[in-house]
Amino acid sequence: MEHEFASYMNWIVPLIPALPLTAFLVTIFFGKWFIKEQAHWLPILAMAAAFVLSLLVWWEVRQAEEGFYVELFTWIPVGDLQVPLAFYADRLSTAMIMMVTGVATLIFIYSKGYMHGDPGYYRFFSYLSLFAFSMLVLVLGANYVMLFFGWEAVGLCSYYLIGFYYHKTSAAAAGKKAFITNRVGDFGFSLGIFLLFVTFGTLTYTEVFEAVEVEGAGTATMTAIALLLFMGAMGKSAQFPLHVWLPDAMEGPTPVSALIHAATMVTAGVYMVARSSVIFASSETAMLVVAGIGAFTAIFAASIGIAQTDIKRVMAYSTVSQLGYMFMALGVGAWIPAIFHLITHAFFKALLFLGSGSVIHALSGEQDMRRMGGLRSRIPYTYWTLLSGAIALSGIFPFAGFWSKDEILGITFKDGAYIIWAVGLVAAFITAFYTFRLIFMTFWNESRMEPEVEKHVHESPWSMTVPLMVLGGLSLVGGFLGFPPEAGVFHHFLEPVFEPANEILGIHHEAFGAIDLTLMIVSVAVAVSGVILAYFFYVRQRDLPEKAGAAAQPLYKAIYNKWYIDEIYDATVVRLVIDGSRFLWRSFDAAVIDGIVNGVGKLWEVSGAAVRPAQTGKVQNYAGMMFAGVFVLLSAVIIAYGL
Amino acid sequence: MEFTFAEQLGFRGLTLLTFLPVIGALVMLLFMRGKANAYKATALVTSLATFALSIYLAIVFNTDTAAFQFQENFVWIDSFGINYHMGVDGISMLLVMLTSFLSVIAILGSWNYVKDRELAFFISLLVLETGMIGVFTSMDLFLFYVFWEIQLIPMYFVIGIWGGERRVYAAIKFFLYTFAGSVLMLVAILAVVWWYSTDAGVTTFDILTLQDGLSGLPSNWAIWSFIAFFIAFAIKVPMFPVHTWLPDAHVEAPTAGSVILAGVLLKMGAYGMIRFNIGFFPEVAVDAIPYVLVLSVIAIVYGAWVSIIQPDMKKLVAYSSVSHMGFVTAGLFVFNLQGVEGSILYMINHGILTGALFQMVGFFYERTHTRLIRDYGGMARPMPVAAAFFSLFVMGSVGLPGLNGFISEFLVLLGVFRYEKVFAVFAALGLIGSAAYLLWMYQRTMFQELTNQKWLALKDINAREILTLVPLAASALFIGIYPAPILRFLEAPSENLIAQVEPFLAQKQSIIELASSFLGGF
Q1: Nearest-CA residue of chain A relative to B480?
Q2: Across the interface, which of A79, A172, A597 has its CB nearest the CB of B447?
């Protein structure tokens, strides 16, 4: 039964991305000379309006099982390839746009305070708006090419925003690294799109998924498609071994880290896999790879988080790790918990970043936690909101992160994926530990600030603290969207989207039982013990970290140096590319090919005195020769036929 | 159905279009010696008029058919069957528009670039324009060859007289390569014309007549003629390994030379392949697919790889052209719609983007007198507008969706993938490569700390310079967002091209499949 959508959907759905696009265009062209320090108004209003429209879309979409499709025009028409510029608002994309526009509005407001007085103020807001546009196209696009469009466009904005302080070499390099690493993923992604088209003859979501269900394709083909697409997801969502760009991306201003590198863009890979659930469900191998990479990344990145001293880098590794949880969930077919965790994570991680930003703001730009401490009473709003984010991230009842993370762990266990469950549980322990390490090092104990910095400590303005409080509230209660576990409002809302994939996998719904309760208790206990351990290490016995570090020297060094992944890449891939380039250029292009050409040239020169003047370098002489050449050639034509 | 100029236009549109620039050049030469403002204005107006005329022709042009349009045909040298025959199909129509478009940009962009013998410089550019348009509008082999040779001479002057320090070396290299190509092409032309005249009893240079008449060509004749044509055009494209003239020519050429060279001249090679290698010898072309694809993929990867380490911005863009033109030849020879249309669109897009990149490097060079990347750094601070435009063109070249480069790259890769996955996998490495070399270059020139405090005093690009970049940026955006109007020109001729090779393709498909399965695939 086709649902009849209200006709105003035809224009509000395209309007959602169009609003921030307009804000971008106006701000970039008029910001520098006309709008200047008022540059925040239009982007904030556009974003807020987009949020309201998203709520309207939700109101419509919740009444239908299928999505709403609107086509503007044919973008790429070549033979049997007809790619329309079209939007598709189903329950999944609606959940995403509500989160994106909502979190973005808060972060835009926060940026008003955080970026105040920056010489690139208008530039910042125009890039943010362009990003919001791109992200909305990414989640609202109706086919894989639109997805790719948004995908690359968010990457572009990320590039500009990471390198926002472009005169800093480290920032400029980080932006480039992010883009190129993502390109490695996109290499696979685009091949996946090609294979999809060659296999099914279309790239429109609804048609592709129907074709997969009805006709299907060989397992090998499905596996290849899924893994190629997943390669793109690994780049965008910073999964091992393509995670290296995200920590460096912290060079960008903190609101950027919150919006792009925590809440929205980096979750695009999760969205993509969830969107393609039917494709992934058709390949056991692909599911296993997704779960495996996710679980490994979850624990791998968490381990690095223990030893970082830069407050934003801790958060960055934490994001990588949490994204790992989401893929872990996707890999065992827990589609809805993955998206649920994506949403709650957006709340509490955006909060944690913005809170860190507030700390950095208060400390005149200091990011090293070793030079913080004792801030509890100095910046209380920041402390309390950040604390609620930390509890949520640690997965402690009843905060948001508890519900979503516990659900993922619960399903992996019940699914019989015990290894993955165990890895997830250990990672949860580490998560609680590094999160509270951050809290204790930053806010507790005595101050270790530079005297000059300490004099200027101040709580942030309302434009920054209000978004913190809203996100703090969401981190506290957001989890109840998913209550009771596996059967919350959120689950019921998204169920129709994943029904086809669940059918392929043969997943059926189970009622909440004793096993779930046991698992809940276990995971809370694990999280609490992580907090307690952090308390011992960083409050009670503060010589412990050093002792532990000394006792396990090689391990500590490896963690501290991020398992040397960057160094390994530099020594292998980067070196191969650079040295190879130099070698090919000097030893092949210049020596071999040009050697031959120059040899011919020499022959030409020594072949007679007639060309002697040529060596004087008079161009006209050569031109004369050229004319002569042309003349000879043309006469040859005449002669050949004259004879 | 015949499409003659008389019915479609009522005037000799193509002749006018082709020779308008030379007429402007003559006026300048005869009446404007020493009057810099007058001859520059004349050059600009002439090129603008030519561009406007090409737009008018494109509007009148019927995109529903693959037939040649606005045809003019009359006997030139009767005894050899040489006719003055002109006409355009959708492919050449677009390339003509590109040529006249970039000529305007190049002329406006070099307003103050040359100091020495300025009049001769602008005359050279206009003569060059006539030569290039003539190449695309000729429907007679002899006429084609004449134009082909004509456009070489002003280009040679432009490099050799107004070029950089090593201009003589570059010009000689250009000459040697070109000469070799011309000789081979001439031999091939003579061969096919001679064979046809003995076979049919009439001598003709008419391209369409030969296209039909050569179907009976013995295979060894066909193969050798194909190879001769192919090498001639491969040099022009340039394909690996006959590309080494390009980096030197670009580095030494003045800005306008580089814009035209990269923007239009390289396309003449691919255009020649379409008309002659595929048009005359479809069967051989099918046999050649694997070889061409291998060479193209090598060009894509090799060009991108070598670009990374280039110390000179122009050299970097030049090597990147080798990589990009690899996409053009690859797309052309897979003989499916996405590949062929993508390939031709790629030529247009490459012309716009690389033309723009060279133009901008020229603007920077005029201010700093260096093109070495390490001399730059932090340029976004004194020149924010320039940096913004530069990033747009860089992103277009990287293939960012929303800009024109993406559409053609996507189509070509999809076309190649359809034909044989393995090639597409290697070709797609170009996606990573282009991001690597272009963004690294951009980082080291526009971003980072200022390497030279002197640069702080530099003036951002002025209104005239912006005026040359806006049309390029606008067309990059337009084609990226709404390529359909451009693709319409390509549909019929591409279908026609594929129809020519289709019978042989089907016949040889089994062999190709065998080879492919041997190479491995899914």
Answers
A1: A75
A2: A172
Instruction: Please tell me whether residue B72 adopts helix, strand or coil conformation.
Output: strand
Q: Indicate the SS3 state at residue A141.
A: strand
B43 in Cβ contact with B24 (< 8 Å) = yes
Residue B238: cis peptide before it, omega within 30 degrees of 0? yes
When mean pLDDT is compared across B14-23, B47-56, B169-178, B329-338, the lowest value belongs to B169-178
Q: Which of residues 260-319 of B touch A (CB under 8 A)?
A: 302, 305-310
Contact A617 B168 (CB under 8 A): yes
Window 432-461 of B, Cβ < 8 Å to A:
432, 435-436, 439-440, 442-443, 446-450
Q: Please name the amino acid found at residue B82.
A: I
- The whole-number pLDDT of residue A606 equals 60
Query: Is-contact B104 B86, C-beta < 8 A?
Result: no
The complex's ipTM? 0.92
CB contact under 8 A, A597 and B177: yes
Nearest residue in B to A580, CA atom: B305
Separation between Cα atoms, residue B378 and residue B451, nearest integer Å: 7
Q: Which of B114, B121, B137 is nearest to B50 (CA)?
A: B137
How far apart CA A371 and CA B197 sit, in angstroms, is: 90
Pairing outcome for strands B82-88 and B69-77: antiparallel
Collect all residues with Cβ–Cβ distance below 8 Å to B314 and sequence separation of at least 6: B250, B251, B258, B358, B361, B371
Q: For residue A345, what are its two tokens?
A: 């994570």
The average pLDDT across A399-423 equals 89
B460 CB-contact burial (10 Å; exposed 0-12 / middle 13-18 / buried 19+)? middle
Nearest to A149 among B161, B401, B449 (CB): B401
Q: How far apart are the first and last CA of chain A?
A: 82
**Is there a contact between A593 and B482 if contact means CB atoms under 8 Å apart?**
no
For range B406-427, the mean pLDDT: 94
From the list A212, A507, A207, A558, the residue with the least C-alpha distance to A337 is A507
- Given a cut of 80, is residue A605 above it in pLDDT? no
Q: For residue A107, what pLDDT band results from cuts at 50, 70 and 90?
A: very high
pLDDT band at residue A467, thresholds of 50, 70 and 90? very high
> Residue A571's Cα: distance from chain center in Å?
26
Mean pLDDT over residues B204-221, rounded? Answer: 88
Residue type at position A410: G
Contact B435 A172 (CB under 8 A): no
Residue type, B490: L
Omega of the bond leading into A241 within 30 degrees of 0 (cis): yes
DSSP letter (8 states) at residue A8:
T
Choose from B82, B147, B161, B175 for mutation: most chain A CBs within 10 A: B175
H or E stretch including A85?
strand A81-89
Tens digit of pLDDT for each residue in A5-56? 888 899 999 999 999 999 999 999 987 888 778 888 999 999 999 999 999 9
